[in-house]
Amino acid sequence: MTSQQLTTQIHQKKSFLCIGLDVDVAKIPSHLSNAEFPIFEFNKAIIDATHDLCVSYKPNTAFYEANGIKGWQSLQKTIEYINENYPDIFTIADAKRGDIGNTSSMYAKTFLEDLNFDSVTVAPYMGKDSVEPFLAVEDKHTILLALTSNEGAFDFQTKEVNGKPLYEQIIETSKTWENAKNLMYVVGATKAEYFAAIRKLVPNNFLLVPGIGAQGGSLSEVCKYGMNKQVGLLVNSSRGIIYASNKIDFAEKAREEALKIQQEMAQILASL
After folding, report:
1. What is the spatial distance between Cα 17 and Cα 19, in angstroms, rounded to a whole number?
2. Which member of 14, 70, 77, 96 is catalytic?
3. CA-CA distance, 77 to 118, in Å (whole number)?
C-alpha cells in the first residue's frame, strides 16, 4: 500500500486509527481458551468488529513469539486473515528489529515478504546498513523509532549531541539513506510538544503515534502539532480497545471503544 492509498483510506473511513493487537493470552476471554489458536480467534473477532473504523492493525510480535510455535502460527494466521479479507487495511509488524546488514535482510524477508506485512518497525541505533535492507523491499514501509512514548525515552533520545537532540539527528540522517521515501517514524503521543520540531524535519512522512488511551496521550494535541496536509498520522490504541471487556461481549465492547476514537477523528478531519 502506498502512502497515497493510505491517505485515501483515511479520508474514506474518516479515521487514522491504528489498533494494536498486543494480545496477552492471560487477558483474553476464558471462553476462547479451548480453541486451537486462542490468540487468532481473539484477533479475528476484534478485526471483524472494528475493520471499518480503523485503517491499520499493528500486532506487537513479542506477544506472539512468547507463545512459541503456536504464537508464531497465530501471527501468521492473523496477517493472512487481514490480507485476504480486508486488503484495504495497512498492516504493521511491530517487531522493532535492527541488526547488522545480513541479519536485517533476513528480518526484512520474514516480515515484509514471507508474512507480507505492509511495514515493520525498526530500531535505528546500528545505523544505515542495519536499516537499508528493510528500505530495499519494494512497495513496503520501514517505520523508524524516532521519539518513543516510554519514560526511558529521555535516557538517550532527547539528549543533545553537538547542540541537537539525538532524535533530531536520527531523523535528519535517515533522510539520506537509500529509499528514504519509504520511511515512516514512531513518535509517541506522550511527547506531543516535540511534534512541531519533528514536522519541520519530515513534513510529508507518516508518523506512527502510540501512547493515546492507556498511556495518557492527547489525540487533540497530537493532531494540533503533528498533522500535515495529507493527515500524515496513524494514531495507535491497543489496550484501551482490545481489553474493553474480558467477557463474551469483548468484540462488541472493542468496537464501542474504537468508535469513540473514530468519531473524534472524524470531527478533527471535518475541521481541516
Report:
1. 6
2. 96
3. 15
Evaluate whether 3 touches 183 at the Cβ level (below 8 Å).
Answer: no
Q: Beta strand 233-237 with 17-20: parallel, antiparallel or unpaired?
A: parallel
Give the H or E element holding residue 183: strand 183-187
Active site residue 175: no
Report the C-alpha gap between 52 and 90 in whole angstroms.
Answer: 12
The pLDDT score that the predictor gives to residue 193 is 81
233-237 and 183-187 beta bridge pairing: unpaired
In a 10 Å sphere around its CB, with 0-12 CB exposed, 13-18 middle and 19+ buried, how is residue 8 labelled? Answer: middle
Amino acid at 107: Y
Q: 28 to each of 248, 250, 268, how far by Cα in Å? A: 10, 9, 32
| pTM score of the predicted model | 0.96
239 three-state secondary structure: helix
Nearest of 202, 212, 260 to residue 237 by alpha carbon: 212
Could you tell me which residues come within 8 angstroms of residue 81 by beta carbon, excluding any fewer than 6 positions away? 40, 43, 44, 47
Q: How far apart are CA 215 and CA 190, in angstroms?
A: 7
In terms of phi and psi (left: phi > 0; alpha: psi -120 to 50; beta: otherwise), the region of 123 is beta
Closest by Cα among 164, 169, 168 to 191: 168
Query: pLDDT tens digit string along 175-189?
Result: 999 999 999 999 988
Nearest to 124 by CA among 164, 156, 152: 156
What CA–CA distance (Å, rounded) separates 226 from 41? 35
